[in-house]
Amino acid sequence: MRALHQSIAILLALLPALAFTADTPYEESIRDWQKKRIEGLKSENGWLNLAGLFWLKEGENTLGSSDKNSIVFPSDHSKASLGKLTLKNGTVTFDAAPNAAVSVAGQPVTRQEVFPYTKPVVLEHQSLRWFIIKRGDKYAVRLRDLESPEVKAFAGIPTFPINEQWRVKATFVPTTGEKIGIVDITGRASQEDSPGRLVFTIDGKEQVLIPTGTAEHLFVVFADQTTRHETYGGGRFLDLKGPDANGLVDLDFNKAYNPPCAFTPYATCPTPPKENRLTVAIRAGEQYKGDH
């Protein structure tokens, strides 16, 4: 009986250390955002299943698993010849090879214009899905494999602890006709419209970010003093709602997320412009433990 009493006493002594602290409503909202982020990456339209990026030449571009093709698809998920993509004056047309078994939305196709489009025209063959993207004046095939081992092996994203102090209010300073130079990882440069500037203070230091997008929906590519050390070397992204009635923007760094290039070599991510390189360390949002 004495041993039982001693065990109970020890257990009671440990209870404070074992006590569970429930998440605040704010922490719950961030965890829900993180969960949806993972689900998005693993979905059919996510970044984890990308299996190739192939730049088109003007004229005919054959595709299939045979190395005789201009574009070589994975041999275990593709017939030797699937057909050809023809790029002519900004229009891309697909012509299927005989018995290629290529479809769009489940319907077999023999000939299909796939670019330009208002919504991507996705070609299907076995577990492969591909469509056309345009970057600058170049066109490419973006290939997905719905049976990609990258999806099955994905172990999640490391993050900094959720801390509401990283949710700051930024003053939105509207601008007219301002553009910001953006360079993607392929070296392509563009001038993007910016509706204004975000001015805020962290650790007593004034910081400025220049978003792209519209006054209603802002997009930011930024770097900070954690970049290449604790976070992804190509910077991180933020999606923000436009300013409220007082001209303030909710700048929540707990929702700072890695670009697609952190997960696949087949993305064409923008990199942080020099104007968006913060002088403070933002230890919030997603981290990066891989090869920078």
TrEMBL record:
InterPro entries, per database record: DUF1684
The keyword Phosphoprotein is annotated on this UniProt entry: no
Signal peptide: 1-21
Keywords: Signal
Official protein name in the record: DUF1684 domain-containing protein
Organism: Spirosoma oryzae
Lineage: Bacteria, Pseudomonadati, Bacteroidota, Cytophagia, Cytophagales
